[in-house]
Specification:
Elements (H helix, E strand, L loop, with lengths): L1 E9 L3 E4 H11 L4 H7 L1 H4 L5 E4 L3 H4 L5 H25 L15 E6 L8 H8 L7 E6 L5 H15 L4 E9 L11 H9 L2 E9 L15 E9 L7 E6 L2 E6 L7 H15 L9 E4 L4 H11 L7 H10 L6 H10 L8 E8 L3 E8 L1
Parallel strand pairs: 4-5, 4-6, 11-12
Antiparallel strand pairs: 1-7, 1-8, 2-3, 6-7, 8-13, 9-10, 12-13
Helix pairs in contact: 5-6, 9-10, 11-12
């Protein structure tokens, strides 16, 4: 089985408490007092206490071209991805000793908040001692589902090449897409919940010589499943404009949890002879408070099974694809019972659902 060996995080340096963001928005957005008062509860009800961003408040208040935003995206993506990768390959909380970069056979780079050709993973290879024959797999446009999909593609690749190792990097800098003149409710919601962050995951195939570096706390991937709902592309994503990327959020997203996500999960559990009620925990991407609440209601489950999804949303916000890596990191810190099963899942543009079954 494919093993999740280690996790590393690249956390941006600028801290933004939610109350500060709320007050900042009242100065920035061109809305009259009546409309602003109507929209501000979005920040109060987001279940986000703070988030970390790659930029400071001065940058947010200024106007920027698409090129300026994307240039900064490339610079910050390099900086925080390297931090996450370095930590993943040296994190002795999860591995007995450091693993060299020349042991990595494939780097999967996931992002939807900026663009680069060559891909960012090509630039990362120049900064560390990767082998020249290491495979690159950049994945773009997957949004919030990207973290789970990146892990799934790593799992597929390691099933085909069981002696190999894979490094998955999820890098999202949503603050660099901020549109100060976009007063649509989608942008207000995005501003209330989005944060920046990078997560890196090291995975080993079942015959990898580095498999014995994994401590017993590391989970194994048993299976993966994808589902995309037809004719739902308007639910979530980006509008690409001359000003850059403008967020699209439909109010229907929480309503898609039941039945779309629930039906997907029940089908996955049935195929794997797994009882939904016996799932130990849900390593869920916290797309927002309403999405997590909808998951609870759909399965009639105790919120304890989503506790780290809630805590990451509270302390970091929604970091798109990287968020589920942060949630995974918190669960890996715990002493989870042997042979217990967890569901790692995320919803994203498409409208899509990705589900991974893990065994501790």
């Amino acid at each position: 089985m494919t093993q999740i060996a280690s996790v590393g995080l690249g956390i941006p340096k600028h801290r933004f408490p939610q109350e500060y963001v709320k007050q900042l928005i009242t100065k920035i957005f061109p809305l009259n007092k009546e409309k602003m008062a109507k929209y501000l509860p979005v920040f109060d009800n987001a279940a986000v206490n703070e988030r970390q961003l790659a930029i400071d408040s001065k940058w947010i208040q200024q106007q920027h071209t698409f090129q300026e935003k994307n240039d900064l995206y490339q610079e910050c993506a390099m900086n925080y991805s390297l931090k996450a990768m370095d930590q993943a390959l040296s994190n002795t909380n999860y591995i007995t000793k450091g693993i060299p970069y020349n042991a990595v056979d494939i780097i999967i780079f996931v992002s939807s908040t900026g663009i680069s050709t060559p891909s960012i993973c090509a630039h990362l290879m120049n900064e560390r001692s990767f082998r020249e024959d290491a495979v690159r797999m950049p994945l773009w446009g997957l949004g919030c589902a990207g973290g789970a999909i990146g892990l799934a593609r790593g799992y597929d690749w390691l099933k085909a090449y069981p002696k190999k190792t894979a490094l998955i990097v999820c890098c999202e800098l949503a603050s660099l897409t901020f549109q100060k003149d976009d007063v649509r409710i989608s942008n207000l919601v995005g501003t209330a919940i989005f944060g920046d962050g990078v997560g890196a995951v090291l995975m080993t195939g079942r015959e990898s010589p580095y498999r014995h570096y994994c401590k017993n706390i590391s989970p194994k991937i048993l299976s993966t499943s994808s589902r995309t709902k037809k004719n739902s592309t308007s639910i979530m994503g980006w509008d690409v404009t001359n000003r850059g990327l403008e967020v699209v959020f439909s109010k229907e997203i929480p309503n898609m949890v039941d039945p779309f996500w629930k039906e997907h999960l029940e089908a996955v559990c049935k195929d794997n002879k797994l009882d939904v009620e016996q799932i130990h925990s849900f390593i869920a991407h916290p797309g927002g408070k309403k999405v997590l609440s909808s998951m609870e209601r759909a399965l009639k489950m105790n919120s304890h099974k989503l506790k780290h999804a809630y805590s990451i949303l509270k302390n970091h916000g929604n970091m798109s694809s990287a968020t589920v890596i942060y949630v995974l990191n918190e669960w890996m810190k715990e002493c989870n019972p042997v042979n217990e099963k967890s569901i790692l899942c995320a919803l994203g543009p498409g409208f899509s659902s990705e589900i991974i079954i893990l065994e501790w």
